[in-house]
Write a structure and sequence with these properties.
The protein is an alpha/beta fold and about 250 residues long. About 40% of the residues lie in helices and about 20% in strands. The protein has a seven-stranded mixed β-sheet, with helices on both faces. Strands 7-8 form a two-stranded antiparallel sheet. Strand 2, helix 5 and strand 3 form a beta-alpha-beta unit. Helix 3 packs across helix 4 and helix 11 runs antiparallel to helix 12. The structure holds S-adenosylmethionine.
Length: about 250
Amino acid sequence: MSNKSIDYDRVSKVYDNVRVGDPEMVYQILQGINLTRKSLVLDVGCGTGNNTLLFSEATPARIIGLDISFGMLEKAHEKTKRVPMVQSPADVLPFSTETFHFVFMTEVIHHLPSPQIAIEEIFRVLRSEGSLCIVTQSHKQIDGRITSRFFPASANVDKERYPDIDVIEEIMSRTEFIKVSHKEYQFKPITLGEEYLQTVENRGYSMLHKISREAYEQGLQDLRAAFAGGEELIYSAGYTFVWASKE
Ligand SMILES: C[S@@+](CC[C@H](N)C(=O)[O-])C[C@H]1O[C@@H](n2cnc3c(N)ncnc32)[C@H](O)[C@@H]1O
């Protein structure tokens, strides 16, 4: 396993305990594009399909989900039989050149062995005038996560895994994408319940697999104490949408 890879077949069993689709985020993405029933859309790294499903319900376009993990796709398939799902890594997309009108990728870029190769592949499968939206977190947004408070080492690990926004934009521009730009999006604050603690206990967040046992145990102890003390824990970081188009 490379430093960036996580066993998502294992994570798929607990992923949906704390990760849900974000209708507002999907709505915001849709503001940036114009899709019709003839449009073909690809969700790269669709995971358990939470956002894929919201997307398919919010637009008349046809959407395909793609993920490297069979376990994640199995969960997605349990939710819908209407959206085709394909198992593949992002750096060799099993589609013809100039197939899609729109490609999006939410919370995936930090897992890719080479963001550059995946972005080049996406460029290849996009049609002329097609768009790409990469949803990720900037380094500033990583620092703002609640998990960074309890597991500060996880913020450092993630800042190494996540290419920062200027790096993504640089790759896009080098790949001959045009109209490269980004926009920040703030999550609606959510009060975290016991499921958050359970997910942390199961190391359901990928970055918790990347910190030392001591750092994990210390953070877990502090988190349990915060819950036991009745502290209200609010999850309110944000995403950045990095947009680009093909001429
Ligand atoms: C944090 S999850 C995000 C899932 C989904 N996009 C969402 O927003 O809920 C990351 C996903 O990326 C997938 N993934 C990791 N490496 C990949 C790769 N090289 N190619 C395609 N998918 C990959 C994982 O299997 C996992 O489902």
